[in-house]
Amino acid sequence: MTDEPLRVLIVDDDELVRAGLRAILGAEDGLTVVGEAGDGAEVVPLAVRSRPHVVLMDVRMPRLDGIQATRLLRERDLDPQPRVLVVTTFENDEYVYEALRAGADGFLLKRSRPAQIAEAVRVVARGDSLLFPSAVRRLAAAYQPARAAGLPGARLTEREAEVLALMAEGLSNAEIAGRLFLGVETVKTHVGSLLGKLGVRDRTQAVVVAYRSGFIPL
């Protein structure tokens, strides 16, 4: 990321929720709200015009839900490609798991404190996923196939395996770096390498693969 403000698009069918998020983010240095939408059908056109770095996405909306809106965003070649942060009321909402499968980068509870919401935007903008480990375990269990012996087709180095295990705990790159006494850029390199070896798009999918393969016990 450059020093320009992080551009945020807010998508929620509740006008009061949008107003609250706008007020919270508008009070933060380095963050700017570039648009709002009350339905998922408005997301792609707004994203094309406003070029957000992060989309705060509600999942339950009347015409087009956040799951399909996330899929449509992922199908578009946008610059920047926005990160999607699902905002939900319940941690165990099945819609959240579907949104993660569709390509969302994490989720945030609506009851989170203002400082947590602002930090969540910054975290996903940096390229980290924002996950609740228990939720990803449930996601993996819900779509559990017959288990393979280890990670399919992947030969992870010992360090990459350590990084993947810490990703499954919900740690960010910076937290992993601190735990393993590595530089953040080194961790990013390991993450990129293991994503390539696993053939997955993002950290969430990597962790789900790790659980489903039995590499990490459910």
Structure, described:
By secondary structure, this protein is α/β, with parallel strands linked by helices. The protein has 2 domains: about 5-130, 3-Layer(aba) Sandwich (Rossmann fold), CATH 3.40.50; about 150-210, Winged helix-like DNA-binding domain superfamily/Winged helix DNA-binding domain (Arc Repressor Mutant, subunit A). About 50% of the residues lie in helices and about 15% in strands. It is built from 10 helices and 5 strands; from the N terminus they run E-H-E-H-E-H-E-H-E-H-H-H-H-H-H. It has helices spanning about 15-25, 45-50, 65-75, 95-100, 115-125, 135-140, 160-170, 175-180, 185-200, 205-210, and strands at about 5-10, 30-35, 55-60, 85-90, 105-110. A 5-stranded parallel β-sheet has the order 2-1-3-4-5, with helices on both faces. Helix 3 (about 65-75) links the parallel strand 3 and strand 4 (about 85-90). It is globular, with a radius of gyration of 17 Å. It holds the Pfam family Response_reg. Keywords: DNA-binding, Phosphoprotein, Transcription, Transcription regulation. GO terms for molecular function: DNA binding.
